[in-house]
Write a structure and sequence with these properties.
62% of the residues lie in helices and 3% in strands. The chain contains 31 helices and five strands. The protein has helices at residues 9-14, 16-22, 37-46, 56-61, 65-74, 86-104, 110-124, 139-148, 164-175, 182-187, 194-209, 211-223, 229-240, 247-257, 262-271, 274-282, 285-290, 295-306, 313-321, 329-339, 346-357, 366-371, 375-378, 380-393, 414-426, 428-446, 474-492, 494-505, 510-522, 524-536, 552-564, and strands at residues 128-130, 152-155, 158-161, 447-448, 457-458. The strands form two sheets. The chain has a three-stranded antiparallel β-sheet. A two-stranded antiparallel sheet has the order 4-5. The longest helix is centred in the N-terminal third of the chain and has 19 residues, at 86-104.
């Protein structure tokens, strides 16, 4: 048997019981995504409205099908695109339906009918109520008008709102006119899950219409010992989602966090986001926390910095740079870079490069590669800079182990090898320029003695097997990545790499000659005459290949020359 639980994303994120279910291995989570921007814009255009006039906030709201329905209801009204929130959309919908109900039946008790249904549903903590509640005052006749306008639904002797969210809005709208605090409202009955949506809607409406009362109600609920924890979690979530926090909001947070509790810890974690970073930074709180003697405050500050977002990248870098001498600087830098979208933060990225070049961060550290894994996808040239800092410019770039190999090249780090593979394909010329000279330096540092007249063999790239080029450890990845990049450039931008090919041709290592020949084979159209000159020199020019056949590559070079002749 399978059980399907349908709920809002808000409940998944803010109800600990649903979160616990969601975390189970035998539970599959399916998310009903919002509409794509293009679909929402098309729907707006079909209403006769210009989607080009929509603000970013409006576009985000209209990705919800419900909000599109609300807009369609008022689309022919002047100022249809004046809404700024879901609450203002609902308010415009309310006014329009109130007007059309009056036109359909003059004297319709629009507000009274909705208030009676909303209050009864709230008292019963259910989304539908018996139609008999409309009997007193003959409200049923008025209710049928609202049903015709698709504001409510009457079915099987029960009445409900056309959508659960409209019930929440209606109740909140009515509640605002009552002389009752939210704590009084919540403590009047059992505080079941049903109350959370009401609390959320009331607070959202209060935020729009009366910000001072909004803060008063938030503080009262979070401070009350009589309000259940799951309700307080909802209040915290609504408060954290305030789009433009003010000085008064910041002061409220500071008052609340003086009360050490699980709830205040959750509040601070929820507030660690770009919208709240700005006002807290502007008032100096982030800096004071970071410079505090209290470890908990320093950790809080670093967490906020890590979640500040790209829009506050300059402030984040300024905070870190001013504390480069702190013993915690590298730890802070790593914490921040592991949580930031590094491809959006050039200055932060440069701080990370500097730390690697200074030996403060080990290129072999797995956690480092987790923090930079998106670079090759979004900024391949930055990825090459990162790879170069790690494997060319870091203090351990040429450090040899007991086996006389470069230790760093032997690491099996998937994040590093994947970045190498992606970067060499995305930016082959930059990759060649960054790594071919370093590969030659590695060959020089690790070659071993052979016959005097032979090419030199090194401990990393010589004695290769003839198989599909692999990206197993970092050494394999760099060598094969360089070969692939040379091949690509030889086909598409031969002039740009000619000097690099001359450098390879002048080198006495067999691994260097193999790189050269792979490029000449790929670029035979351009390089056939020069390739023929090299082959005709004979001797060591005929030695490049694999363990199974040390002359394989020269034969392929000859084949390429013959074909182009």
């Amino acid at each position: 048997m399978r059980v399907i639980l349908a709920c809002r994303l808000f409940d998944v994120e803010n109800d600990h019981r649903i979160r616990k279910l969601d975390a189970r291995n035998d539970v599959e989570r399916l998310t009903v995504e919002l509409l794509p921007d293009e679909a929402a814009a098309g729907a707006v255009s079909a209403m006769g409205l210009d989607p080009g006039l929509l603000t970013a906030t409006q576009r985000a709201l209209l990705r919800s099908p419900l909000n599109l329905v609300l807009l369609e209801t008022i689309a022919d009204q002047p100022g249809a695109l004046n809404f700024t929130s879901r609450g203002s959309l609902f308010e415009a919908f309310w006014r329009r339906k109130e007007q059309t109900s009056e036109e359909r039946r003059p004297g319709t008790l629009f507000n009274d009918v909705l208030a009676r249904i909303a209050y009864t549903a709230s008292d019963n903590q259910t989304l539908s109520v018996p139609v008999e509640i409309l009997g007193p005052g003959d409200f049923i006749k008025h209710a049928r008008v609202l049903a015709s306008e698709q504001v409510i639904a009457i079915e099987d002797d029960r009445v409900s709102f056309f959508h659960e969210t409209f019930f929440d809005f209606t109740f909140a709208r009515q509640w605002l006119s009552r002389h009752q605090s939210m704590v009084e409202f919540l403590c009047a009955q059992e505080q079941e899950l049903f109350r959370r949506a009401q609390v959320r809607q009331i607070l959202e409406l209060l935020r729009e219409r009366d910000p001072d009362r909004f803060r008063t109600e938030v503080e009262a609920v979070l401070s009350s010992a009589d309000v259940r924890f799951h309700i307080k979690e909802t209040v915290v979530a609504v408060f954290a989602n305030v789009s433009a926090p003010t000085l008064e909001d910041v002061e409220l947070v500071l008052r609340l966090v003086h009360r050490e509790s699980t709830l205040t810890k959750r509040l601070l974690l929820q507030l660690a986001r770009p919208t709240w970073f700005g006002p807290f930074y502007a008032q100096g709180h982030i800096e004071r926390w970071l410079d505090s003697d209290d470890v908990a405050l320093r950790d809080r500050s670093v967490n906020w910095i890590a979640n500040a977002g790209a829009e506050h990248g300059a402030e984040v870098v300024d905070l870190l740079m001013a504390r480069k001498q702190s013993p915690d600087y590298v730890m802070w830098l790593r914490w921040v870079t592991q949580r930031a979208d590094l491809h959006l933060h050039r200055r932060l990225f440069e701080l990370l490069l500097d730390a690697i070049r200074a030996g403060q961060i080990d290129p072999a550290d797995h956690n480092h590669w987790l923090s930079v894994h998106k670079l090759a996808e979004y900024q391949p040239l930055w990825a090459i800079e990162m790879l170069k800092a790690c494997f060319v410019e870091s203090p351990s770039a040429l450090a040899l182990g007991s086996d006389d190999k470069v230790t760093l090249l032997g690491i099996h780090e998937y994040g590093a090898t994947q970045m190498i593979e992606a970067a060499c394909k995305a930016e082959p010329q930059a990759f060649v320029e960054a790594f071919v000279p370093h590969l030659l330096a590695i060959m020089e540092a690790t070659h071993f003695d052979g016959l005097e007249q032979d090419l030199l063999h090194d401990r990393h790239f010589s004695l290769r097997l003839r198989m599909e080029p692999g990206y197993d450890d970092v050494g394999d990845a760099l060598y094969n990545g360089a070969a692939a990049a040379l091949e690509k450039c030889a086909q598409t931008s031969s002039d740009a790499i000619e000097s690099m090919l001359r450098l390879l041709a002048a080198n006495d290592h067999d691994a260097a000659q193999s790189l050269l020949y792979r490029a000449l084979i790929a670029g035979a159209v351009t390089f056939a005459p020069w390739a023929a000159e090299l082959i005709l020199q004979g001797g060591n020019r005929l030695k490049a290949g694999y363990l199974s056949d040390p002359h394989w590559l020269p034969r392929e070079v000859v084949g390429g020359c013959c074909t182009e002749r």
